[in-house]
Amino acid sequence: xxxxxxxxxxxxxxxxxxxxxxxxxxxxxxxxxxxxxxxxxxxxxxxxxxxxxxxxxxxxxxxxxxxxxxxxxxxxxxxxxxxxxxxxxxxxxxxxxxxxxxxxxxxxxxxxxxxxxxxxxxxxxxxxxxxxxxxxxxxxxxxxxxxxxxxxxxxxxxxxxxxxxxxxxxxxx
Length: 173
What we know:
Blueprint: E1 3-11, E2 16-21, E3 27-33, E4 38-39, E5 45-46, H1 49-64, E6 69-78, E7 83-85, H2 105-115, H3 118-125, H4 135-145, H5 147-152, E8 159-161, H6 162-171
Parallel strand pairs: 1-6
Antiparallel strand pairs: 1-2, 2-3, 4-5, 7-8
């Protein structure tokens, strides 16, 4: 009889992990992997999303075919501040943008001109302007720096973080 397990992907910035836990929350299987970063169109280091997705699919498919385990639940624990933008078919329009990617000052100047002074906006929204770590600033940056890509970004989840991207991928099957 197969052991009923919960599968968990724990995708960190450095280490990518996959675990199986039994019904008593005891770890019964684990796998670790690391991927070399790639560069976005500006030469800034970022996650190799294609390699990560291939690895995750292979690991998960292998466990689905396992004679030993029956997956009854799936969860994703991931760093979530980096965003990817996808088209209507769920294919990436952009690299997975690293939340540490610096933005030019003109992005903030333009944003503040359009939406109000930084201190006031941060006070009202409770969201300081922390570059790509701030989702609103990230989307504004995409809108002004890549308007054609921004226009193609029409479905939900069109702009998403890693955990939501994986949930989207695995819930469509």
